[in-house]
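Just curious. Protein, please.
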Amino acid sequence: MALLDPAKSFDADAFAQLAIELHDAPGVDETLETAVRFALQAENCTHAGVVLAVRGGRAEIGAVTDPVVGTLYRIEIETGQGPTLAALSGDTIVVPDVATDHRWPGWQSAAADAGIGSALHVSMRAGDRTTGVLSLYNTQSKAFTVDDEAIAHILARHASIAVATARHEVAMAQAVDARKLVGQAMGILMERFDMDADQAFAVLRRYSQDTNTKLRDVAHQLVETRKLPH
Protein backbone atom coordinates (compact mmCIF):
# COMPACT_ATOMS: atom_id res chain seq x y z
CA MET A 1 0.00 0.00 0.00
CA ALA A 2 1.33 3.46 -0.84
CA LEU A 3 2.41 5.70 2.01
CA LEU A 4 0.27 8.71 2.73
CA ASP A 5 1.56 12.12 1.75
CA PRO A 6 1.98 13.91 5.13
CA ALA A 7 0.56 17.07 3.61
CA LYS A 8 -2.63 15.26 2.63
CA SER A 9 -2.98 12.62 5.32
CA PHE A 10 -5.96 12.81 7.60
CA ASP A 11 -5.15 13.76 11.21
CA ALA A 12 -4.08 10.68 13.18
CA ASP A 13 -5.95 12.09 16.18
CA ALA A 14 -9.15 11.83 14.14
CA PHE A 15 -8.54 8.12 13.56
CA ALA A 16 -7.91 7.68 17.27
CA GLN A 17 -11.23 9.38 17.95
CA LEU A 18 -12.90 7.14 15.38
CA ALA A 19 -11.54 4.04 17.14
CA ILE A 20 -13.04 5.28 20.41
CA GLU A 21 -16.41 6.03 18.83
CA LEU A 22 -16.52 2.65 17.08
CA HIS A 23 -15.65 0.89 20.33
CA ASP A 24 -18.35 2.81 22.22
CA ALA A 25 -21.07 2.16 19.61
CA PRO A 26 -23.75 -0.01 21.27
CA GLY A 27 -24.36 -2.38 18.33
CA VAL A 28 -23.50 -3.37 14.77
CA ASP A 29 -25.87 -0.82 13.17
CA GLU A 30 -24.47 2.03 15.24
CA THR A 31 -20.91 0.92 14.47
CA LEU A 32 -21.56 1.04 10.73
CA GLU A 33 -23.30 4.43 10.93
CA THR A 34 -20.25 5.82 12.72
CA ALA A 35 -17.93 4.42 10.04
CA VAL A 36 -19.79 5.88 7.06
CA ARG A 37 -20.22 9.28 8.74
CA PHE A 38 -16.48 9.36 9.36
CA ALA A 39 -15.82 8.46 5.72
CA LEU A 40 -17.57 11.65 4.62
CA GLN A 41 -15.16 13.67 6.76
CA ALA A 42 -11.95 11.76 6.04
CA GLU A 43 -12.39 11.02 2.36
CA ASN A 44 -12.95 12.89 -0.87
CA CYS A 45 -16.43 11.44 -1.26
CA THR A 46 -19.95 12.75 -1.48
CA HIS A 47 -21.63 9.47 -0.47
CA ALA A 48 -20.51 6.39 1.45
CA GLY A 49 -21.87 3.02 2.46
CA VAL A 50 -21.06 -0.40 3.85
CA VAL A 51 -22.24 -3.80 2.66
CA LEU A 52 -21.76 -6.80 4.95
CA ALA A 53 -21.03 -10.38 3.93
CA VAL A 54 -23.52 -12.71 5.60
CA ARG A 55 -24.04 -16.46 5.63
CA GLY A 56 -24.34 -18.19 2.31
CA GLY A 57 -22.09 -15.68 0.58
CA ARG A 58 -24.90 -13.13 0.39
CA ALA A 59 -24.47 -9.38 0.67
CA GLU A 60 -26.53 -7.29 3.08
CA ILE A 61 -26.79 -3.50 3.22
CA GLY A 62 -25.24 -2.27 6.46
CA ALA A 63 -25.31 1.53 6.34
CA VAL A 64 -25.56 4.33 3.77
CA THR A 65 -25.20 8.09 3.91
CA ASP A 66 -27.63 8.69 1.06
CA PRO A 67 -30.59 6.76 -0.41
CA VAL A 68 -28.73 6.70 -3.75
CA VAL A 69 -26.17 4.33 -2.25
CA GLY A 70 -28.90 2.01 -1.00
CA THR A 71 -30.43 1.95 -4.48
CA LEU A 72 -27.11 1.04 -6.10
CA TYR A 73 -26.50 -1.68 -3.52
CA ARG A 74 -29.92 -3.20 -4.13
CA ILE A 75 -29.32 -3.26 -7.89
CA GLU A 76 -26.09 -5.18 -7.32
CA ILE A 77 -27.70 -7.63 -4.91
CA GLU A 78 -30.66 -8.24 -7.25
CA THR A 79 -28.54 -8.68 -10.40
CA GLY A 80 -25.59 -10.38 -8.72
CA GLN A 81 -23.18 -8.02 -10.48
CA GLY A 82 -21.37 -4.85 -9.54
CA PRO A 83 -18.19 -3.39 -8.07
CA THR A 84 -19.24 -3.89 -4.45
CA LEU A 85 -19.87 -7.59 -4.97
CA ALA A 86 -16.55 -7.85 -6.81
CA ALA A 87 -14.82 -6.29 -3.80
CA LEU A 88 -16.31 -8.98 -1.55
CA SER A 89 -13.72 -11.29 -3.11
CA GLY A 90 -11.11 -9.30 -1.21
CA ASP A 91 -9.97 -7.05 -4.05
CA THR A 92 -10.00 -3.27 -4.06
CA ILE A 93 -12.23 -2.05 -6.89
CA VAL A 94 -11.72 1.42 -8.34
CA VAL A 95 -14.10 2.94 -10.87
CA PRO A 96 -12.29 6.12 -11.99
CA ASP A 97 -14.96 7.18 -14.48
CA VAL A 98 -18.43 5.64 -14.29
CA ALA A 99 -19.32 6.94 -17.74
CA THR A 100 -16.58 4.92 -19.44
CA ASP A 101 -16.44 1.81 -17.23
CA HIS A 102 -18.53 -0.97 -18.80
CA ARG A 103 -17.64 -3.90 -16.52
CA TRP A 104 -21.10 -3.96 -14.93
CA PRO A 105 -23.59 -2.42 -17.40
CA GLY A 106 -26.64 -2.50 -15.12
CA TRP A 107 -24.80 -0.88 -12.25
CA GLN A 108 -23.06 1.60 -14.54
CA SER A 109 -26.32 2.83 -16.02
CA ALA A 110 -27.94 3.28 -12.60
CA ALA A 111 -24.85 5.00 -11.14
CA ALA A 112 -24.56 7.37 -14.09
CA ASP A 113 -28.27 8.21 -13.89
CA ALA A 114 -27.81 8.95 -10.17
CA GLY A 115 -25.02 11.41 -10.93
CA ILE A 116 -22.15 9.26 -9.67
CA GLY A 117 -18.85 10.03 -11.41
CA SER A 118 -16.42 7.70 -9.64
CA ALA A 119 -16.36 5.03 -6.95
CA LEU A 120 -13.93 3.22 -4.66
CA HIS A 121 -14.72 -0.09 -2.96
CA VAL A 122 -12.40 -1.48 -0.28
CA SER A 123 -12.89 -4.86 1.37
CA MET A 124 -13.25 -5.08 5.15
CA ARG A 125 -11.35 -8.05 6.55
CA ALA A 126 -11.26 -9.84 9.90
CA GLY A 127 -8.33 -12.24 9.88
CA ASP A 128 -8.43 -14.10 6.57
CA ARG A 129 -12.14 -13.51 6.01
CA THR A 130 -13.83 -10.67 4.14
CA THR A 131 -16.63 -9.35 6.34
CA GLY A 132 -17.86 -6.55 4.12
CA VAL A 133 -17.03 -3.68 1.79
CA LEU A 134 -16.63 0.03 2.41
CA SER A 135 -17.87 1.99 -0.62
CA LEU A 136 -17.01 5.59 -1.42
CA TYR A 137 -18.69 7.60 -4.19
CA ASN A 138 -18.10 11.02 -5.72
CA THR A 139 -20.20 12.97 -8.17
CA GLN A 140 -17.00 13.87 -10.04
CA SER A 141 -15.00 11.45 -12.18
CA LYS A 142 -11.42 10.54 -11.22
CA ALA A 143 -12.04 11.89 -7.72
CA PHE A 144 -10.05 9.33 -5.73
CA THR A 145 -6.28 9.49 -5.38
CA VAL A 146 -3.77 6.97 -4.06
CA ASP A 147 -3.97 8.77 -0.71
CA ASP A 148 -7.75 8.37 -0.66
CA GLU A 149 -7.32 4.65 -1.25
CA ALA A 150 -4.78 4.38 1.56
CA ILE A 151 -7.08 6.19 3.99
CA ALA A 152 -9.98 3.99 2.89
CA HIS A 153 -7.97 0.88 3.77
CA ILE A 154 -7.24 2.25 7.24
CA LEU A 155 -10.88 3.15 7.77
CA ALA A 156 -12.03 -0.25 6.51
CA ARG A 157 -9.64 -1.96 8.92
CA HIS A 158 -10.96 0.02 11.88
CA ALA A 159 -14.53 -0.70 10.83
CA SER A 160 -13.97 -4.43 10.31
CA ILE A 161 -12.47 -4.87 13.78
CA ALA A 162 -15.30 -2.90 15.36
CA VAL A 163 -17.98 -4.86 13.49
CA ALA A 164 -16.39 -8.19 14.47
CA THR A 165 -16.34 -7.07 18.10
CA ALA A 166 -19.94 -5.85 17.98
CA ARG A 167 -21.12 -9.10 16.36
CA HIS A 168 -19.33 -11.12 19.04
CA GLU A 169 -20.98 -9.11 21.79
CA VAL A 170 -24.40 -9.59 20.19
CA ALA A 171 -23.79 -13.32 19.88
CA MET A 172 -22.71 -13.52 23.51
CA ALA A 173 -25.82 -11.65 24.65
CA GLN A 174 -28.03 -13.94 22.58
CA ALA A 175 -26.30 -16.98 24.06
CA VAL A 176 -26.96 -15.70 27.58
CA ASP A 177 -30.62 -15.07 26.73
CA ALA A 178 -30.89 -18.55 25.21
CA ARG A 179 -29.48 -20.18 28.32
CA LYS A 180 -31.97 -18.27 30.47
CA LEU A 181 -34.88 -19.35 28.26
CA VAL A 182 -33.80 -22.98 28.24
CA GLY A 183 -33.42 -22.89 32.01
CA GLN A 184 -36.92 -21.46 32.44
CA ALA A 185 -38.39 -24.05 30.07
CA MET A 186 -36.63 -26.87 31.90
CA GLY A 187 -38.04 -25.55 35.17
CA ILE A 188 -41.57 -25.68 33.76
CA LEU A 189 -41.14 -29.28 32.60
CA MET A 190 -39.54 -30.34 35.88
CA GLU A 191 -42.39 -28.88 37.90
CA ARG A 192 -45.24 -30.06 35.66
CA PHE A 193 -44.00 -33.58 34.92
CA ASP A 194 -41.83 -34.28 37.96
CA MET A 195 -38.68 -34.58 35.83
CA ASP A 196 -35.08 -34.04 36.79
CA ALA A 197 -32.90 -31.56 34.89
CA ASP A 198 -31.41 -34.15 32.52
CA GLN A 199 -34.85 -35.47 31.56
CA ALA A 200 -36.25 -31.97 31.00
CA PHE A 201 -33.34 -31.01 28.75
CA ALA A 202 -33.70 -34.27 26.82
CA VAL A 203 -37.36 -33.46 26.13
CA LEU A 204 -36.50 -29.99 24.84
CA ARG A 205 -33.73 -31.35 22.66
CA ARG A 206 -36.01 -34.07 21.22
CA TYR A 207 -38.68 -31.51 20.33
CA SER A 208 -36.00 -29.31 18.77
CA GLN A 209 -34.75 -32.17 16.60
CA ASP A 210 -38.19 -33.56 15.69
CA THR A 211 -39.56 -30.18 14.64
CA ASN A 212 -36.29 -28.88 13.13
CA THR A 213 -36.57 -25.87 15.42
CA LYS A 214 -33.78 -24.17 17.29
CA LEU A 215 -33.61 -25.17 20.95
CA ARG A 216 -33.94 -21.52 21.95
CA ASP A 217 -37.17 -21.19 19.96
CA VAL A 218 -38.64 -24.37 21.49
CA ALA A 219 -37.83 -23.03 24.95
CA HIS A 220 -39.29 -19.62 24.09
CA GLN A 221 -42.57 -21.15 22.93
CA LEU A 222 -42.84 -23.28 26.05
CA VAL A 223 -42.19 -20.30 28.33
CA GLU A 224 -44.67 -18.10 26.45
CA THR A 225 -47.50 -20.62 25.94
CA ARG A 226 -46.75 -23.24 28.58
CA LYS A 227 -47.09 -25.74 25.73
CA LEU A 228 -44.53 -27.61 23.62
CA PRO A 229 -44.65 -27.33 19.80
CA HIS A 230 -46.88 -29.86 18.05
